[in-house]
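Deviations from the work plan: none for this task. Representative record:
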Amino acid sequence: MQLQTLLSSSDPGLPPDNKYAIQTQHLNIFYGSFRAVKEVNLGIERQKITAIIGPSGCGKSTVLRGFNRMNELVPTAHANGQVLFHGKNIYDHDVDPVQVRKHIGMVFQKPNPFPKSIYENIAWGARINGFKGDTDELVEASLRGAALWDEVKDKLGQSGLSLSGGQQQRLCIACTIAIKPDIILMDEPASALDPIATLKIEELMRDLAKEYTIIVVTHNMQQAARVSDYTAFFTMDQDRAGYLMEYGPTDQMFTNPTQKVTEDYITGRFG
Amino acid sequence: MSIQPNGAPASTSAHPLEITPASNLGHRHRLGRIWRIIFLASTLVGIVSLITLLLTILNDSMGYVAYEFKVDPTSLSASGLALQELSRDALVAILRQNISANAYNTLEKAKPFAERSQADVYDLVYERVIEPEVAKTWTLFESLFERRQVFTEATEQYPQATLSFTFWINPEFLSDPQSSDALFAGIRTAILGSLWTIAITILVALPLGLGAAIYLEEYARDNWLNRIIQTNINNLAGVPSIIYGILGLAIFVRALEPLTSGAIFGVGDPLTAKGRTILSAGLTLALLILPLIIINGQEAIRSVPNSLRQASYGLGATQWQTIWHHVLPNAIPGILTGAILAVSRAIGETAPLVVIGASTYITFDPSGPFSKFTTLPIQIYQWVSRPQSEFRNIAAAAIIALMVLLLGLNAVAIYLRNRFQRRIS
């Protein structure tokens, strides 16, 4: 129960009839003059896992980073169109990207814990976001939430880098849920891990989906089929600009896709 | 015909691991060995030069010296005791007999003999009465391996002289102020001057350089203005140091004289120092190493993995929080390594300080940033340009002191760096 209240992602300001946690409208993302992603219209359902799949270079990661303005760390990147979060475009001028990233957290491809203790890894993110409560409690709740507590409870003082790859990735997930985001973006979270660690992450994602909205980019078709509720298939046009080809419930996408390209990609005929 | 497991007929094909001329393997290995020898040779040349340098300095810093005394020390002591063993009063008596009443009174006025120690009075007797002079010095090498020749030469050419083995670098040399007589000269003023100067240099250059490095690496956009700034900094790192001396002379000594002489603070001695103060020297050296610190700092900041920055931003950190909590702590070992190299260069600099007007001969200690000053390299430079051979010996001794000072400062910096490294990993 305590865990529930600590990690609750509910927001009182949300209109009850809005079924999308986040929604893009005519989103275009550019690197300099190159348009990497064009005209994406994608509504992400709350507390579901949405997988983004597609061939290399089709802009999957770019779209994912478009959801929390991480693209802006690349100096030449810019976006137009809208990404609506609670009815507000996150690209509006009065929106601070730092605030966006607090609500829309991110887990990266390569596990990237800080070179600090496990405890500090989790406490730091919460602290800089103004957390004032009991840090011990928060660390425990976050580690339990990331299914890591039992493995590390006796060595919270050790460096986060001393953990195995899979554990590091779950530590990063714990750091993310410690700041209580609404949405968690995952950029190929298991691609650097072995099959067993991958399974653990996937189980964890299913657990997290009970409370969080998750968007995951993956190269692994089976993974998308196993974990996701919805699948968005991206491909690219002749100008190498990525666009959304097909989007729907995962079962339907994998058994009965409407587009020939989707079927070809899913069955491994290209990509 | 029997068929081998790999399917090839046994009679026509050689074993796959057999070396054939076509594989060219011998040639490839030989080439590798030649390069290895070349690399080893260049390392050896470096090491040999370093050892030669050290030996040359050691060679000059100690050895036999033939002293000629104006008054034979044995004739002074009536009791037959050695002078060092005489009581203070006996030594004072000797002093009174042998120097003019005027000189005696001056000494008495400076500090009454009743308050002086026996060693102090002995030094006075040695300096004022015995008045030793160096007739000839021999190097350490000659003193060790050609002792007989040294002795013969001394007895033949300097029959009056006393031969004794002398360590030019000794406690008195470190603690005495400057003197025009090589036998009584010390480097206290120069050491203090060097320490004061380098402290100011570090205080100014490190924060400024680090700030600029952070700005250029983390904040500056990639536009033509910043590219020009970057190119200029890179070029400034290669500008000869004497040019910084000219810059320092124009700006700190001349244009900012009221500031660097301490006049606007109402301290310092504007009549003697003008702008040629420790402050000017420190600021000039700070300018000199600023580009080095900036470039090294940038390098260190750039080597912090981007994944760390992303992790930080992903958790909703601001740019400043990312820099302060993650980028800087991880860059500090690299920043310090660069700073150590830069400061080492500053300690050894002579040319810019000569240009801005370092005093070559001062006997009083610097009392603050607005004092006249000399530094160890300046002192060494001045001594090696003197014709008397004994100045070459004290220059060698001062070089050893400078190197020990440098190594000491580096050791402290490296210790600090390693502590930082341990804390973050």
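The beta strands of chain A are 20-31, 34-45, 49-53, 77-85, 88-89, 104-107, 183-187, 213-217, 230-236, 242-249.
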